[in-house]
Amino acid sequence: MSKKRQQLIDTAIELFNEHGFHGVGIDRIAEVSGVTKKTLYHHFRSKEELILAALKQKDSTFRNDFMRAVEATGNTPHQRLLGIFDVAQAWFSDQKFYGCMFINAVGEYSEPDTAIRAACKSFKQQILSYIQELAEQADVDDPRRVAVALAILLEGATVTAQVSQNPEAAQAARQTAEILLNAATRKAA
Amino acid sequence: MSKKRQQLIDTAIELFNEHGFHGVGIDRIAEVSGVTKKTLYHHFRSKEELILAALKQKDSTFRNDFMRAVEATGNTPHQRLLGIFDVAQAWFSDQKFYGCMFINAVGEYSEPDTAIRAACKSFKQQILSYIQELAEQADVDDPRRVAVALAILLEGATVTAQVSQNPEAAQAARQTAEILLNAATRKAA
DNA sequence: ACGATAGTAAACCGATCTGTTTACTTTGAC
DNA sequence: GTCAAAGTAAACAGATCGGTTTACTATCGT
């Protein structure tokens, strides 16, 4: 992949996160990337294609970073399920935390059965799958149910931190996750 | 308040929810409202003022409807705390459910210390206050903590339902809320 | 009946939007 | 060294953006 193409995607991610998708024009993305519009349209047929490329890249890098970070929080699946929320807190504390790009995208593109919506849905499903794997390894009752609940807690902490500008939402979610995990492992003991 | 003004706000809420704030122009809002731009600018000094008026109205009507609906789910504070999620599920099931307008707004306007951000933050704080009141009435341990956790569950269910187009996220959140409330009332028993 | 308020209709402003075009230059693989 | 791909620079196009202006009309309380 060419460097210019990569630069455009990186710039697009930054600007879209900060100002929303409709709030950033193609001219600005090209300008900030240090590239002409011609070059931009050489790599992407349309703004929507650039958006999709940005989402796809975010999907890939975020999940990769997220999983690595979660796995660094402990060696047992149980520790890692809770570690999710410590990783989240670090994410929320970033100077440039603008919430989840995929949630923000759905806020602007509500029409169902579009490529953008599909990308967002897919991202969330994959995060859920990862949590479910951890839950299965942790040997909880009904790992699917537990994973869905933990995913909801993660989403809730994310938007709460975003709107209220308070990264500690992650710890509140973590405490709830602990109670949930206790309840889901008690029977197995 | 004039009818035209009200019509403009109602139209703005609908269109902003569907296409985002940057995704809808003043011309379109005026046109759909059956009103000229002159009239629009007679009632609102700028697009941002219209956005703020729309947010303010949504804040008022949503919280009002929400509280009434929650109180209709049961007579005890405990029932009502859980009723939150039944009310949420009904909301998510609406044909025209586009997620929480305030979350969506923050996704487009990230700059802190702006009127729009303040409106969103305020809305969330007021919802939290309401939940906290119910928690206090329900005589749980640490009602603040419980309320924060329930608010996070509600936010999480909202965005999950929005992105995944699955209103049942509300029931998953409700089940987690039940576990949380059990844990928070056990000691008091 | 008068005058302010709220309204219509439509042109206009400069800026920005997505996307294209023309003309020319750099770069890198074979 | 050549030739195509990738690049620059900049103008252009038609639409739409937020917002203003002009000219005129309907409504309504006093």
Can you name the CATH architecture of chain A?
Answer: Orthogonal Bundle
Largest sheet geometry of chain A:
none
Number of helices of chain A: 9
CATH class of chain A: Mainly Alpha
Describe the structure.
Two copies of one chain form a homodimer. Chain A has 189 residues and is an all-alpha fold. Chain A has a single domain (56-188), classed as Tetracycline Repressor, domain 2. In chain A, 76% of the residues lie in helices and 0% in strands. Chain A contains nine helices and no strands. In chain A, α4 crosses α5 and α5 (77-92) packs across α7. The longest helix of chain A has 25 residues, at 47-71. Chain A is elongated and about 60 Å long. The model of chain A has no long low-confidence stretch (mean pLDDT 96). Chains A and B meet through α1, α6, α7, α8 and α9 of A and α1, α6, α7, α8 and α9 of B. Chain B binds a DNA duplex (30 and 30 nucleotides) through α2 and α3.
